[in-house]
């Protein structure tokens, strides 16, 4: 039975990855961007049609779309992710150089948004319909309706340009190689994009946790605990937090895709040297191989997160282990 469930989950994961690859390839195929023209840039004015045709032929752009997709899929299965026309380097090398920066930013933002969102949800539930609850809900509604790039630009204008508390951009001082930047400089440059991305992910988790916590507070076990003299702290820790943890963790893992999507815009606004900026560059230049690799990597992370949430559920809820 357990083996069947694992095989079924694996089959679903493979189907999702295949669907993502086909969708991204189809969108890039329908895009009006000419990869050769984007690659040449201003030099296109000096290139002859024959030269542009030879470049397109060397990249395989003159082949039918099904053949190109099948050729790309075969390369991926052999461990070759292709060649990035944007960075003139193997796609694997581009991913390797930028994955660490994106993982640091998105990973920290994801974890912090989970902790902060869960705590705010519990506080709002315990103070239901009082001013802390109203303030937290209003803050969450505003954050949920605020695009990441707009929030990032406001933070740059206020904290970097206006107050001068943080650098305007980048992962380190401008002109200093990344391997020579100190820890303090790295943290100063990380503060603003991390704050913007964390705030982006807080709202959904806080609102879901609040609803679940209110439901728990109205349950019979909590009513009995109150009658037996349990204080607010005891009720919060022994009843609300423990029982609200499972939906909180589920929402947290489900929000990973949104955090990655927000990171793409945040990296562009803050000039953060991660995969988000590479994604936009690849889209603007018609770099199919790089965009497909990033999309597949993102899909793998999101699928793995959902599978991890399914595996964690029995550990957090003993009732599911008994089923």
Account of the protein in words:
- This protein is mostly helical and 323 residues long.
- It is 76% helix and 1% strand.
- It has helices spanning 2-30, 35-40, 49-58, 65-77, 91-126, 131-144, 148-162, 183-217, 220-227, 232-254, 256-269, 275-285, 288-316, 318-321; strands at 83-84, 89-90.
- The chain has a two-stranded antiparallel sheet.
- Strand 1 and strand 2 (89-90) form a beta hairpin.
- Helix 5 (91-126) packs across helix 11 (256-269) and helix 12 runs antiparallel to helix 13 (288-316).
- The longest helix has 36 residues, at 91-126.
- It starts with a helix and ends with a helix.
Write down how many β-strands occur, each being a DSSP E stretch of 2 or more residues: 2
| Sequence stretches where pLDDT stays below 50 over 5 or more residues | none
Estimate the mean pLDDT confidence. Answer: 85
The string of secondary-structure elements, in order, is HHHHEEHHHHHHHHHH
Query: What is the approximate shape?
Result: globular
Give a quick account of the main beta sheet: strands, pairing sense, barrel closure.
2 strands, antiparallel
State the end-to-end CA separation.
12 Å
């Amino acid at each position: 039975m357990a083996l069947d469930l694992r095989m079924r989950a694996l089959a679903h994961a493979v189907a999702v990855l295949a669907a993502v690859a086909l969708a991204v390839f189809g969108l890039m195929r329908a895009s009006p961007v000419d990869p050769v023209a984007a690659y040449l840039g201003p030099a296109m004015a000096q290139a002859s049609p024959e030269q542009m045709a030879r470049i397109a032929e060397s990249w395989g752009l003159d082949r039918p779309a099904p053949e190109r997709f099948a050729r790309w899929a075969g390369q991926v299965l052999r461990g070759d992710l292709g060649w990035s026309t944007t960075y003139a380097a193997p796609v694997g090398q581009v991913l390797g150089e930028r994955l660490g920066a994106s993982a640091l930013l998105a990973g920290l933002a994801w974890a912090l948004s989970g902790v902060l969102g869960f705590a705010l949800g519990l506080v709002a539930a315990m103070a239901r319909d009082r001013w802390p609850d109203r303030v937290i809900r209003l803050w969450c509604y505003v954050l949920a309706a605020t695009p990441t790039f707009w929030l990032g630009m406001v933070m740059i204008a206020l904290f970097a340009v206006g107050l001068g508390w943080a650098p305007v951009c980048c992962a380190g001082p401008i002109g200093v190689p990344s391997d020579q930047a100190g820890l303090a400089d790295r943290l100063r440059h990380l503060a603003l994009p991390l704050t913007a991305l964390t705030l982006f992910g807080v709202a959904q988790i806080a609102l879901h946790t609040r609803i679940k916590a209110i439901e728990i507070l109205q349950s019979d076990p909590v009513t009995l605990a109150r009658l037996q003299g349990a204080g607010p702290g005891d009720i919060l820790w022994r009843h609300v937090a423990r029982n609200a943890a499972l939906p909180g963790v589920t929402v947290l893992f489900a929000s990973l895709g949104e955090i990655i999507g927000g990171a793409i815009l945040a990296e562009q606004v803050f000039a953060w040297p991660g995969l988000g900026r590479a994604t936009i560059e690849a889209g603007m230049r018609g770099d199919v191989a790089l965009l497909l690799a990033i999309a597949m990597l993102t899909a793998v992370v999101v699928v793995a997160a959902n599978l991890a949430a399914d595996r964690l559920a029995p550990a957090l809820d003993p009732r599911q282990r008994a089923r």
